[in-house]
Specification:
With 486 residues, the chain is of the alpha+beta class. Helices cover 54% and strands 15% of the residues. The protein folds into four domains: 3-128, no CATH class; 141-250, GAF domain (Beta-Lactamase, 2-Layer Sandwich); 261-326, Orthogonal Bundle (Helix Hairpins); 331-480, Heat Shock Protein 90 (2-Layer Sandwich). It has helices at residues 15-36, 42-79, 91-138, 144-159, 223-288, 296-328, 340-350, 375-392, 448-458; strands at residues 163-170, 173-180, 195-202, 205-213, 336-338, 359-364, 371-373, 398-406, 409-416, 463-467, 473-480.
Length: 486
């Protein structure tokens, strides 16, 4: 709905309109009365009263008063003896003329007052509608420059403006919007009309200004219009203050998240980097010791420890780097058709040492369609999920990997028989560095599931956690099927 449908400004009657209606209606009444009966003034009285009512309705109190005065003069001149003079011979004619004048004045005044009160009521209603409309615009939640631009555009029609400017500041940056009528702004050399400038302020704090400009030759702003402009400026102040508070809140949230990330990163470094480094140092120190004697089996065991802990360090650092890429939006998938069973077999074969303490079973449909994915990234998803399942499975436990088509996606499930995840925490485990109630000595940085979700979502899929009857956890993710459109 356009604002013009809600708000039409009330224009006071012009002097020309007052004169035209104040003279025209009594003249018409005189002509009709003379045509009906030239000698009787009874019909003339009724017609003159009607003329006064119509003049007051059309031009306000001054139009009614002018019509009353001319009706009095017309009654004496045309309908009292001697005719066509302003002398009155009979006393009853004088009384009738005076009564006509008084009644006409009272009627004209009352009609004008009632209509004026009606106009004021309508004006207040229109003002309330305008303020309500602006409040909806200002509190729409959009960016502040867009909100202020809509605000400036909304003031053009109600106030008859050719230009409306709004200036403010947000987070140290100046915001200046200018709305003009479709006919365009003031042309070079053309003098603008009346201008009104009202502050945008909350209390003693000024947040900006509203500058309203009318066209050349337009009337000035009334006190009522100035008050309405100030009311609209107060609403703009609330919108600007809200935007300022939003900036502060976002800044505070960013600081809190940054501090939380730093704390989590520090915790991850201390627990997940220091532990393998300690094992590597202890193994190398033992190998380099001149007093320690190691046979070939012991040396191989120590070197194997160094290799495993180095791989562990590599995974932690890789997860941290991947998290940085995800936050920077640089982890873009290079998609191609890929077979899910081949991806799963490749990951399980590569992770043979990490999965040595558990049994891995497969339940993959033989007719499973290909998926349209980045194989390297999906390899990482499976690696993180299997690594997570292995860490939470009891010794000798079982991990079940299943895959089946579902509508237009392929659904992959990785289930373990560990302690499970509480329903209240099944969404939080996908947050970076979140480890729940895991003991500090348990391996893991809390990044695996967060990176897995980022990759799956980047492919247009979903990932979530389900419980298993009897204990355990199932991580389910969906990937889009490959459709050959050639």
């Amino acid at each position: 709905m356009h604002l013009g449908d809600l708000w039409h400004p009330v224009r006071p009657a012009s002097p020309a309109r007052i004169v035209a209606t104040g003279i025209g209606f009594p003249a018409i009444a005189t002509g009709i009365a003379l045509a009906i009966n030239r000698t009787s003034g009874v019909a003339a009285v009724s017609l003159y009263l009607l003329a006064v009512v119509l003049a007051a309705a059309a031009a306000g109190v001054w139009g009614g008063l002018l019509a009353a005065a001319l009706s009095f003069a017309g009654f004496i001149f045309f309908f009292t003896a001697p005719r066509y003079t302003f002398r009155v011979a009979a006393v009853e004619d004088v009384v009738a003329a005076v009564v006509l004048l008084l009644v006409a004045l009272v009627v004209g005044f009352l009609v004008a007052r009632v209509l004026d009160e009606h106009d004021r009521t309508e004006r207040r209603e229109r003002d309330a509608r305008l303020l309500g409309y602006l409040a909806t615009k200002l509190l729409s939640g959009e960016q502040l420059p867009r909100v202020l631009d809509d605000f400036a555009q909304a003031l053009l029609d109600p106030f008859g403006l050719i230009r409306c400017e709004v200036e403010s500041m947000l987070d140290g940056e100046e915001i200046r919007v200018i709305a003009t009528r479709p006919s365009g702004p003031v042309q070079p050399g053309e003098e603008p009309g009346p201008k009104e400038v009202v502050p945008i302020a909350i209390g003693d704090t000024q947040l900006g200004i509203v500058r309203a400009v009318r066209g050349s030759g337009a009337r000035g702003f009334t006190a009522t219009e100035h008050a309405l402009l100030e009311a609209t400026a107060k609403q703009a102040a609330l919108a600007i203050e809200r935007a300022r508070l939003d900036v502060r809140v976002r800044g505070a949230q960013l600081d809190a998240e940054t501090n939380q990330l730093r704390a989590a990163l520090f915790s991850s470094v201390t627990h997940d980097l220091r532990t393998p480094l300690s094992s590597i140092k202890a193994s190398v120190t033992s190998l380099l010791s001149e007093t320690a004697v190691h046979d070939a089996g012991q040396q191989r065991e120590l070197l194997t420890t160094v290799l495993e802990e180095t791989d562990r360090l590599n995974r932690v650092v890789g997860n941290l780097m991947d998290l940085a890429k995800i936050r920077a939006g640089a982890l873009e998938p290079a998609r191609e058709p890929a077979a899910v069973d081949e991806l799963v077999q490749t990951v399980v074969a590569r992770m043979r040492s990490q999965l040595a303490g558990v049994r891995v079973r497969f339940a993959i449909r033989p007719d499973l369609p290909d998926v349209f994915v980045d194989p390297v990234q999906v390899d990482q998803v499976l690696t993180n999920l299997l690594d997570n399942a292995a860490h939470h499975s009891p010794p000798g436990g079982e991990i079940l990997i299943s895959a089946a088509p579902f509508r237009d996606v392929v659904q992959v499930r990785v289930a373990d028989r560990g302690s499970g995840i509480d329903a209240a925490e099944r969404e939080r485990v996908f947050e970076a560095f979140y480890r729940g109630d895991a003991a500090p000595e348990r391996p893991g940085s809390g990044l695996g599931l967060a990176i897995a979700r980022a990759i799956v979502v980047g492919h247009g899929g979903r990932i979530w956690v389900e419980g298993v009857p009897g204990g355990g956890t199932v991580v389910v993710f969906e990937l889009p099927m490959w459709v050959d459109r050639r």
